[in-house]
Amino acid sequence: MKYLFVFFAFMLILLTSCTKTLEQAVSSDNSQKNGNDTANVSNTSINQNSPIIIYVENDFTIIGGSRNGSFNSIYDYYYNNKELEDLYNINSNRTEVDCELLKQNDLIVFYDINAESYNVICDNVELVFVHSTPHLIPNMKNELEISVNKAIGISCDWEVFPRKPVFNGNTAVVDIDGNGVMDEIRWEFSQCDESGVDETKLIINYNGKEYVRQATTPLYIREYSVLNIMDLNGNGKLEIVEYTYDYGVKYTILGISEEGFIEYISYGYGDY
Ligand SMILES: [Ca+2]
Ligand SMILES: [Ca+2]
Predict the structure, then answer these.
(1) Last residue of one domain, picked from the residues 118, 133, 154
(2) How far is the CA of 264 from the centre of ligand 2 (A)?
């Protein structure tokens, strides 16, 4: 009995010291990264419940978010202590919402395809309706002074992107899963007049094996591209942000594994 007690006491001490070491490691790691991101910004907070915000041609849209490593659609969060479906049913006007996902003074860092990053501060979030679809539009306190017309914004304290350009035209070479084997991402789309069918293709060579994601559509495709490749949920693996512009707009957050593509978030609207 006595030995049992001594054993448990020893285990307790061991556990406590391990937890403390872990806490210290995490906090020093975070402070370093926060320091980099917030160097020129004061009065901000990092939102651990990170939104994913798309910036295209001067418009911001929240397409979902991640929480503790899981991806969620905009419907999975609370607004004014209600679910988005409730607000959608009772109110079709443009309204400012108290959004669980993104709050006033949250710092959002936007990343473009050239691996440049830009800080903006959230002022408020509005619920608006486009083609009867609810959209969450963040209004910012400062201008996004950006040299390109597309970027992805996220509010987190993990490393979201290899801080160097990986894109060359419609190809990117980057180690998606960080295993030391480089992966290649390439995209293309063709407008085919004869068949009346357009085609988009995303080809990934992932750790030496090729995966193809292909769509053929009678819709006229204006643009198809990869907006960026970033870690959007903090699990250390990069996701691909796919953009399709035909009669509507669609953003898809894609993952890749040995089993193929995974659609984590698909967000779209338009005239069909
Ligand atoms: Ca790899
Ligand atoms: Ca990830």
Answers:
(1) 154
(2) 10
> Ligand 1 centre from 237 Cα, in Å?
9
Question: How confident is the model over 6-41, as pLDDT tens digits?
Answer: 555 555 554 444 444 433 333 333 333 333 332 223
Q: pTM to 2 decimals?
A: 0.80
Query: Quick one: how far is CA 151 from the chain centroid?
Result: 11
Q: What separation in Å is there between the alpha carbon of 163 and the centre of ligand 2? A: 16
CA of 180, nearest ligand number: 1
Output 25-33 pairs: Cβ under 8 A, ≥24 positions apart: 30/157, 33/157, 33/158, 33/159
Give the domain CATH number at 262: 2.40.128.460
**DSSP E strand boundaries for 91-149:** 95-97, 107-111, 117-130, 133-140
Interval between CA 179 and ligand 1 midpoint (Å): 5
